[in-house]
Design a protein that fits this description.
The complex is a heterodimer of chains A (298) and B (264). By secondary structure, chain A is an alpha/beta fold. Helices cover 35% and strands 28% of the residues of chain A. Chain B is built from eleven helices and two strands, in the order H-E-E-H-H-H-H-H-H-H-H-H-H. In chain B, a hairpin with a 2-residue loop joins strand 1 and strand 2. The chains are: A alpha/beta (298), B mainly alpha (264). At the A-B interface, strand 1, helix 2 and helix 3 of A face helix 1 and helix 4 of B.
C-alpha cells in the first residue's frame, strides 16, 4: 500500500493570460504521508491546490487524485477529499453546529451517521462549549479550527490544507499544528501549502519547494538541508558595506551565501579553512528555501 | 498504481448534490427569514394600497374587474420578481465574491451546474410562496376566494425559476455591484411596467403591446389572473410553456456564466 499515490501530477501547466502560474509541475503524494508545498508568494501553491479540486482546469499535463483522473472524474475525488481554504468561507450567521450540518449534507454523509459525524467534528475543533454560537462570535483561532473540522466531517482520505495558519498568532498556530499532527498520526494523507518554513519542517514528511510554478527540490526536510545547505552555516554580522564585502569574498572562495537582512549567512562551512569569522549555527530549511527560490522579492 | 476509491463514477445533476445546496439555503434562511418575509410582505402591500386606493378612487373597474382585484392579482408577479431576480443577483454576487461560499461548495462533490440549479430551485420556491402574499392581502380587500388560487404558488414558482436564473446569469456576467444598476434600469424596470400589473396593455401603443407579449412577467400576470378568476383556457398552456422555455434557456446561460466565473 505504501507505494500508492494519493496525488500524482505530471507536467501540470496552468496559465492565466500572460502569466503561467503552474509551469510543468510534477508532484507525488504517497498515501499516508504529509507533503508540504513550500514556496514564496506567487510560486503557484494556491493554483496547484485549485487544480486538485478542479476549480482550476490545467492547460496541460496529467492530474490524478485518489486514482481519479482530473478534471473528468474530479467529483468522485472531491467526495473523498477535505479542503481547508486559505480564506475563511464559513457561513458567519450560522452556528458552529449548523455549519457542520450543512457540510455533512454537502459531503453526503448518510442520515444515520450524520449526528455522530457532527459530534466528532465539534470535539475535534474543541468547540463543545461554543457549538450553539454563531460563527461571527468566535475568535480567529476558533474559526480556523472549525474550518479544519468542517473539512474533516466526512473522514476524508485526503486533506488539502492551503496555508492553514496564515495570519494567526503563535499560540493559535501551535494549537493547529497539534490538530494537523493528530490527523497525520491517524494515517490521513495530507497536502499542505505553506510559506512558513517552520510549519513545513515540523509537519511534513517530505517537502516540495516551489518557485515560479515548478518544483525546484523535493525530499524530507533534513535531507534537503544536508543536500543544499550542508551541516553548518556561518552567520557574519556587520554594517551593510562590510556584508557586501564578505559576500564577494565568499563567492570568490566558492561558497554559497544568502542575506538574512541583518547578516550574511555563509553556507557549507562544515570544514575549517576559510577566513571568515562569525557565529556558527546549524543549517536549516530556511537556508535551502532562500537559496533555491531566490532572494529578490518580485 | 494509484489508490482508487470504491466510489462509482458520479453523474450530473445528482439529487444528493442538489440536496446539499438546498440544505445550506434552508439552514441559512432560519437566520434571516424575518427580515426577508417582512420586506416581501410589506412591499407588495404598499403597492396594493397605493395603487388600489389611489387609482382605485379614479377608476372603479379595469379589464372587467374591480381595480383592487386587478392590482391584487397583478402584483403577484411583482412580488415574484422582487423575491427572485433581485435576491438572485445580489445574493449570488455576495456569495461568490465576498463570502466565497461557492468556493467551499465547489470543493465538495458539487458541480457548478448543480450549484446553480439548487440555488435557482430554492429562490423559485421562496418566490412561489412570497408571490401569494399580495393575493392574500387582496382577499382582505374583497378579492373572492377561488380554487384557481391553488395554482398561484405553482405559477409563481415557474416564473420565479426563470427570474432566479436571470439574476444568477447577471451576477455571473457582472464584474461589480454597479453593473446591476444598468440591468435594473434598462431591463427590470421597463419589464415591470410593461407587465399589465397596474394597467392593461391594451391601453398602450401597438409596439408596446408586442413587447409586453414577449415579457415573461406579463405572461405571469395573465396566468395568475386567469387562474384566480377561473378563466383558464388553452392559451394559458402556451403561457406556461413560454415561462418554462424562458426558465430553461436562462438556466443554461446562468450555468455557463457561473462556470466562467467560478472555474479558472
Amino acid at each position: 500500500m505504501s507505494d500508492e499515490l494519493a496525488i500524482r501530477l505530471r507536467g501540470a501547466v496552468k496559465r492565466y493570460g500572460q502569466i503561467t502560474a503552474v509551469n510543468g509541475l510534477d508532484l507525488d503524494v504517497p498515501v499516508g504521508t504529509c507533503v508540504g508545498l513550500l514556496g514564496p508568494n506567487g510560486a503557484g501553491k494556491s493554483t496547484t491546490m485549485r487544480l486538485l479540486t478542479a476549480q482550476a482546469i490545467a492547460d496541460d499535463g496529467e492530474i490524478e487524485v485518489l486514482g481519479f483522473r482530473l478534471p473528468k472524474e474530479s467529483k468522485a475525488a472531491r467526495a473523498d477529499c477535505g479542503v481547508v481554504p486559505q480564506l475563511d468561507n464559513l457561513d458567519v450567521t450560522l452556528t458552529v453546529e449548523q455549519n457542520l450540518l450543512v457540510f455533512s449534507h454537502l459531503y453526503r454523509i448518510p442520515r444515520a451517521e450524520r449526528k455522530e459525524a457532527i459530534e466528532r467534528a465539534v470535539q475535534m475543533a474543541n468547540l463543545d462549549a461554543r457549538r450553539h454560537d454563531k460563527v461571527d462570535k468566535l475568535s480567529g483561532g476558533m474559526r480556523r479550527r472549525l474550518l479544519i473540522a468542517r473539512a474533516l466531517v466526512h473522514r476524508p482520505r485526503l486533506v488539502l490544507l492551503d496555508e492553514p495558519t496564515v495570519g494567526l498568532d503563535p499560540q493559535v498556530r501551535q494549537e493547529l499544528w497539534a490538530l494537523i499532527d493528530a490527523l497525520r498520526a491517524q494515517g490521513t494523507t495530507i497536502l499542505m501549502s505553506t510559506h512558513y518554513i517552520e510549519e513545513a519542517q515540523r509537519l511534513a514528511d517530505t517537502v516540495l519547494i516551489m518557485s515560479h510554478g515548478k518544483g525546484v527540490a523535493a525530499g524530507p526536510p533534513a535531507q534537503l538541508v544536508a543536500e543544499h545547505a550542508g551541516r553548518e552555516v556561518l552567520e557574519v554580522y556587520g554594517p551593510p558595506a562590510r556584508l557586501a564585502e564578505v559576500q564577494a569574498e565568499a563567492a570568490e572562495a566558492g561558497l554559497s551565501t544568502r542575506r538574512t537582512g541583518t547578516s550574511i549567512s555563509i553556507l557549507g562551512v562544515d570544514e575549517n579553512g576559510h577566513p571568515f569569522e562569525g557565529e556558527r549555527r546549524q543549517a536549516n530549511l530556511e537556508d535551502v528555501f532562500v537559496l533555491l527560490t531566490g532572494e529578490e522579492i518580485e | 498504481m494509484a489508490a482508487r476509491a470504491e466510489t462509482q463514477r458520479i453523474g450530473r445533476l445528482e439529487r444528493s448534490a442538489l440536496t446539499g445546496v438546498l440544505v445550506r439555503e434552508v439552514v441559512n434562511f432560519t437566520s434571516y427569514w424575518k427580515a426577508s418575509t417582512f420586506s416581501s410582505t410589506v412591499e407588495p402591500t404598499i403597492y396594493l394600497l397605493a395603487f388600489g386606493f389611489g387609482f382605485g378612487s379614479l377608476v372603479s373597474r379595469v379589464g372587467g374587474f374591480p381595480y383592487v382585484e386587478f392590482v391584487g392579482t397583478g402584483t403577484v408577479a411583482t412580488a415574484v420578481l422582487f423575491s427572485s431576480a433581485f435576491p438572485a443577483m445580489f445574493g449570488t454576487f455576495v456569495k461568490y465574491k465576498f463570502q466565497r461560499t461557492y468556493d467551499a461548495i465547489l470543493a465538495a462533490p458539487v458541480d457548478t451546474e448543480e450549484l446553480v440549479t439548487g440555488e435557482a430551485i430554492w429562490i423559485a420556491t421562496r418566490a412561489g410562496v412570497y408571490g401569494c402574499v399580495p393575493m392574500i392581502v387582496a382577499i382582505f380587500f374583497g378579492l373572492d376566494v377561488s380554487w384557481g388560487m391553488l395554482l398561484v404558488p405553482l405559477i409563481g414558482w415557474l416564473a420565479g425559476l426563470g427570474w432566479a436564473c436571470f439574476g444568477i446569469m447577471i451576477a455571473g456576467f457582472a464584474s461589480s455591484f454597479e453593473n446591476f444598476n444598468y440591468v435594473v434600469s434598462a431591463v427590470l424596470t421597463p419589464l415591470f411596467l410593461l407587465a399589465g400589473t397596474f394597467f392593461p396593455l391594451s391601453t398602450l401603443p401597438r409596439w408596446a403591446q408586442i413587447l409586453g407579449e414577449v415579457n415573461p412577467l406579463h405572461q405571469c400576470v395573465q396566468l395568475v389572473r386567469d387562474a384566480v378568476f377561473l378563466n383558464l383556457s388553452w392559451v394559458d398552456l402556451l403561457r406556461a410553456g413560454y415561462l418554462a422555455l424562458f426558465a430553461l434557456v436562462l438556466w443554461r446561460i446562468a450555468i455557463h456564466a457561473m462556470e466562467r466565473k467560478l472555474i479558472d
